[in-house]
Amino acid sequence: MTRKNDIDTATGERLYRMLRLIRRVEEEVGRIYPSDRIKSPVHLSIGQESVAVGVCDPLRPDDVVSATYRSHAGYLAKGGDLRAMFAELYGKATGNAGGKAGSMHLVDMAHNVLGSSAVVGTTVPIALGYAFAIKQRKEDRVVVAFFGDGATEEGVFHESLNFASLKKLPVLFVCENNHFAIHQPLNKRWATDQICARVETYGIPAERITDANTETIRDCTQEALANIRSGQGPAFLECLTWRWREHVGPGEDYDAGFRDRSALEAWQEKDEVERMGAALDGASRSRIDAEIEAEIADAIEFAERSPFPEGKELYAHVYAE
After folding, report:
1. What is the pTM of this model?
2. Strand runs labelled E in the chain
3. Residue 1's pLDDT band (boundaries 50, 70, 90)?
4. Residue 318: per-residue pLDDT
5. Looking at the 3D structure of the chain, how many domains does it have?
6. Does 75 reside within a domain?
């Protein structure tokens, strides 16, 4: 689906700010990573930012996000603390999990970001359980579950869709379809690419967004959220996108033959960060860019000067003494 609606200046600036923040944060993560100051593997969302931004922008503060191990974008788009994120990547005590979890397990419950998971597909049942609790408490909240196209091949994905539809749970399933499960393309894993058609067999309305347009994703999310809040049950969005970097780490995988560079170039030509930035007046864009650079520099400095956890933390949060 392609649908581009006009947005006001404030909304355009807000969307660009978050797109640009995620892009620059991850570029800095990629720059720092070879120094070994970052203590965990990183899975970058460079190129995929519009999905998290378009989905999270219409959410309310008390709505909940369940993100995958490629979690930086969803974490930041939902308002996650940038200082705590960098400190966590550095393995520092001031990180949002005390330096114990790293990039793949970011959490910020103050902003309703559930702990992300390194296991493919597990964000789906986690989100489902939270949505079930919300419905039992009769709260007007929605849970968003982000996952990749590879997660749709896990058995728990189908079990969760069925249960969510059966119980009309307040959950929005968002598939970030970047066409690959690590290095295996979708066309070598599925006989057809009709993910939405398969989802619809569970009685869940499903929509496919093909161009990664931020406003289209935002509009579709707003419609889905309205239906979910009215008691109609879950909804599903499939957002086609492309990760510019390798599956894990800051490098590329094109020269290794896993993916075609021409596909990257085609997606780069319609880069949402640049498109949304170009729609702003020059002064506003420069101001936003400068503010973002200052915010990132502050977060990195915070991580650099924060202490590592004390040894006693090895024995904290365990099942037995």
Report:
1. 0.95
2. 64-66, 143-148, 171-177, 180-181, 184-185, 206-209, 235-240
3. low
4. 85
5. 1
6. yes
